[in-house]
Amino acid sequence: MSYDAIGVIEARYFATALEMTDAMSKAAQVEWLASENYLGGRLVTVVIGGDIANVKAAVEAAAAVCAGKAANPLANAAVILKPHAEIMKFILPSSKLDMDGQAEAAAETLPPAADLAPAEKKVDASAIAEADAKTDAKTKTKPKASRPSAAEKKNMKEES
């Protein structure tokens, strides 16, 4: 997924970062991308993405939340326009990048739902039950041997 801009804010406290994230989400159409806690929640980084105008509005809303506080808890705020794909590797988890690529590939290969025959749209319950049975048969393991009881141990010592 590509974004026209990403916004990064660093707040000094977790509760403030949560309040700022709420303000950003309400002020503009942005998507939360990542967050990290440092120093036990005393320094929190939040990363958002979206189009340029929305990201700028969201970062301004976050700064406005902190402007009214006695000790300004906003450590840093930045808007990065047209972030490079290499930067996004550091921000987005690799699993999300993989899922986005897989979703796009699947969307290209699957026919539209209207093209499917009615029989293909229905889920066959017997096929699902059969697949579950095969899975259960494959995953069955032998029962573990139990530990010998005290009487069995005594008998084993006497035999030796």
What can you tell me about this protein's structure?
This protein has 160 residues and is an alpha+beta fold. It contains 7 helices and 4 strands, in the order βαββαβααααα. The chain has helices at residues 14-27, 52-67, 85-91, 94-109, 118-121, 125-139, 150-159, and strands at residues 5-11, 31-38, 43-50, 74-81. Helix 1 crosses helix 2. Residues 113-123 have low confidence and may be disordered.
Write a compact overview of the structure shown.
With 160 residues, the protein is an alpha+beta fold. It has 7 helices and 4 strands; from the N terminus they run βαββαβααααα.
* Total of helices: 7
Distance between the termini: 70 Å
Report the uncertain regions: 113-123
Annotation, overall tally of beta strands: 4
Average of the residue pLDDT scores: 75
Question: Hey, roughly how much beta strand do the residues contain?
Answer: 15-25%
Secondary-structure-based class equals alpha+beta
| Gross geometry | elongated
Order of helices and strands: EHEEHEHHHHH
**Percent helix:** 40-55%
Integer-rounded radius of gyration: 28 Å
Can you list the strand order of the major beta sheet? 2-3-1-4
Largest sheet: 4 strands, antiparallel
